[in-house]
From TrEMBL:
UniProt lineage: Bacteria, Pseudomonadati, Thermodesulfobacteriota, Desulfuromonadia, Geobacterales
Superkingdom per UniProt: Bacteria
Name of the protein this chain belongs to: Wadjet protein JetD C-terminal domain-containing protein
Amino acid sequence: MQRPETGRLLEALPYGKTMLDKIWMILSEVATVPPGEQRTLLRSMLDAIKDAEFIEFPRMTTSWDRSALPHLPKWINRPRTKVVRQYAEHVIWSPELSFLSSKKELADSPWLKIDKWLKETRNFIRDSVPVRERSLEIFGDEKMLDALIGAQAFKSSLITLDALSCYYVPEPAAWERGPLGSEKLPGVCIENSTTYDVVKRFNREAGIWGFVVYGRGNGFASVVEGILPIMEEFGHSRILYFGDADHEGLEIAARGARKFSAAGRELELEVRLYRLILECGKFAESKTGGVLSPGATDLIRKADLNELPGIFLQHLRVSQEWAGYRRLKRY
């Protein structure tokens, strides 16, 4: 996968054998996964880590979960580094890799291939290409660089993707521009596809928002990087958000808000739409509830939706689908 989350998954995996249920738990802590894509994403990330030879899969077919596609290992093994090691010797590192000069690298270290590529292309113009394309060029493996991006060297900015003349390709965001005259109004991100379609159609006439963008459910945080270019095109530093009025819905918004904040942008709740479903909708039991995180609490406080925490403590929710097309036109 073309995601920094692959490296974070590797860092979170303990040494030794880890069962599949524990892997699922770790994945939920390091990545926001779109509904229906969990198995495909997990298998892709595990394959990338295995191809980089950080983990091992079981060999017996009985040790694989074949209840759905793609098949998943019932456990993985992250072996500790062997005592017997072969180190690279007499390496004069490229300037971009000078941080390695005081370290001992294994003879099969991926940094050696990066160093070789940097030296071979030193006197040529390097076109900027996507991460996977550069990874294929350097390693002969399009996934290898994905796993390496999670290493401490990248996290500490000792080396950047710019040094390799490549860039991370974010998930593209589905969106629609508002009508003429709405350009200066903030855009709104809608959590699920049904309400996105409704709000999008409504906005074509109402022109309440500069643009409407699809938030991809609980995969919202993963699509933030695809929304940022849209905001830049409009010259906006703030975006509004609307989803289910439930505990998990607000936590989804909070995770996205953190990513926007890291990019110098601000996310706020679309108060008008939340007020609409709280006034017109019906409460239902929720699978999630309890105390909200500080980030979600802060979003609610700024939006003056102070009744929501009490609702969530009762494990209740109001679906965003109560903001139907007819209600929007009357509201």
